[in-house]
Specification:
By secondary structure, the protein is an alpha+beta fold. The chain has two domains: 150 residues, HIT family, subunit A (2-Layer Sandwich); 164 residues, HIT family, subunit A (2-Layer Sandwich). It contains eight helices and 14 strands. The chain has a ten-stranded antiparallel sheet, with helices on both faces. Helix 1 crosses helix 5. The radius of gyration is 20 Å and the shape is globular. It starts with a strand and ends in a 5-residue tail after the last helix.
Length: 332
């Protein structure tokens, strides 16, 4: 069974163990289980968005071999000097369109808004469970892989802990706020708009930029201009969803010109109702944190950690990357 183990030296949690297929999933080597008509190959839907004829537009179900299971308790316990807990949570698949082979960028703004609304609704629902401290949305876009990988989809993970990267963002956001009484992301936006060499796109609601110390070539962050720590609260209204959908589409189309292989992650506030390791720090999250999307293309020469010591090598500066992305011409 899958469980979580804490690395006592690096203080990071590792998922370990064999993933057990769910009883209501069926394998298919030749047919895409995400295409209409093949729904019997996937678990039963948890959530669906339907069109006017009652056909699904976006479909959500649990992963056939989930990393995290809804059933049970975290069961955090010591094993000598070590710590472990059960992998309690949720692992869901979001099929973003009925159309096989279309990327998220190739959908209409209205269709992208449906996907974003699905993320929002699932995050709200999963955060009702106080066992789950964080809900992640991640997607990896690949071309030329197995059939299901070519069908646009993303994953939602609800976990009993805050992922290490997000926790570091939260802690440094809090540190900045305690020193200056300002959100660090808002400060970044103010500086970048004054000297927009790293800005890729900007409108009244959102700004995209290549971060000053980006880890990956052509890494882009999409950040709301107005301060908000919560993706799901910020996008409560349909017009706000449509605004982000149109903005995200432009940025994804630009990045697809660099590589069809893309990674995207949503960073939003943790589930504050669940309790925390640092209750005092979490009280100011609505003021000190700022939700955002992080996207980067995967390149053949994707550069790794130097000697595995935690240094990222990115040969393309943020200024070069932003200038190159701005020059990409998109079809009207």
């Amino acid at each position: 069974m899958v469980e979580l183990r804490l690395d006592p030296v690096r203080q990071g949690w590792v998922i370990t163990g064999k993933r057990q297929p769910m009883s209501d999933s069926v394998d298919s080597d030749t047919r895409c289980a995400f295409c209409p008509g093949n729904e019997s190959f996937t678990p039963q839907p948890i959530y669906q968005r339907l069109d006017s004829d009652g056909a699904w537009k976006v479909r959500v179900f649990h992963d056939r071999a989930p990393l995290f299971h809804v059933e049970g308790r975290t069961g955090s316990e010591a094993e000598g000097m070590f710590d472990r807990m059960n992998a309690v949570g949720a692992h869901e698949i979001v099929v973003e369109t009925r159309q096989h082979g279309k990327t998220l960028a190739e959908l209409s703004p209205d269709e992208i808004a449906d996907v974003l609304e699905t993320y929002r609704d699932r995050i709200i629902d999963l955060k009702r469970d106080r066992r789950f401290r964080y809900v992640s949305v991640i997607r990896r876009q690949r071309r030329g892989g197995p059939a299901c990988e070519e069908h646009s989809h993303s994953q939602i993970l609800a976990t009993p802990l805050v992922p290490q990267l997000v926790e570091r963002e939260l802690r440094w956001s809090l540190y900045h706020y305690r020193r200056k009484q300002r959100c660090i992301f808002c400060d970044i936006l103010r500086q970048e708009t004054k000297s927009p060499t790293r800005v890729v796109e900007e409108d009244a609601d959102y700004l995209s930029l290549c971060p000053y110390a980006g880890r990956f070539p052509y890494e882009v962050w999409v950040v709301p201009v107005a301060h908000n720590s919560s993706f799901e609260q910020d996008l409560a209204a349909r017009p706000r969803l449509l605004s982000l959908a149109a903005f995200l589409k432009i940025n994804l189309l630009r990045l697809q010109k660099v590589s069809y292989r893309l990674r995207l992650a949503l960073h939003t506030e943790p589930n504050r109702a669940s309790g925390a390791l640092d209750p005092e720090g979490w009280q100011t999250i609505p003021d000190d944190f700022h939700w955002h999307l992080e996207i980067h293309p995967e390149l053949d020469e994707d550069l790794q950690l130097i000697d595995g010591e935690g240094f990222y090598f990115n040969p393309i500066s943020a200024e070069e990357a932003a200038a190159a992305l701005r020059k990409i011409e998109l079809e009207p």
